[in-house]
Amino acid sequence: MAEIERLTITLPAAMAAAVKGAVSGGDYASSSEVIREALRDWAVKRALQRQEFASLKADIDRGMADLAEGRLTDFDAERIAERGKALSARSRSA
Q1: pTM
Q2: Nearest to 36 by CA among 66, 7, 65
Q3: At CA 58, angle to CA 66 and CA 44, rounded to 5?
Q4: Which pLDDT tens digit goes with each residue over 27-58?
Q5: 69-84 mean pLDDT
């Protein structure tokens, strides 16, 4: 079994009420279960953000390498905006 460590946390009143409400409503057996699930969700979200950051950094690195090698194209704001919209839609669906 995983090692357990007790932590004491302080929450704003609204968050504490939401946790207590989830427990009293029967969705969770304890406040600890609510917090554990929230932390699991946070960890997934953080991992996705790190992946997106790494992907953006790789794009920038490729662009800088292209610039250094003289591989340039004319600036096309419409094409860039469309690509940004596609990327944004993709990240919202993830």
Answers
A1: 0.64
A2: 7
A3: 165
A4: 999 999 999 999 999 999 999 999 999 999 99
A5: 89
Exposure pattern of 17-35 as b/e (b: 16+ CB <10 Å)? eebeebbeeeebeeeeebe
Three-class DSSP labels, 68-79: HCCCCCCCCHHH
87: its two tokens:
């990327």
- CA gap 20, 90 in Å, rounded: 35
Cα–Cα dist 58/64, whole Å: 10
Q: Is 52 exposed, middle or buried (0-12, 13-18, 19+ CB in 10 A)?
A: middle
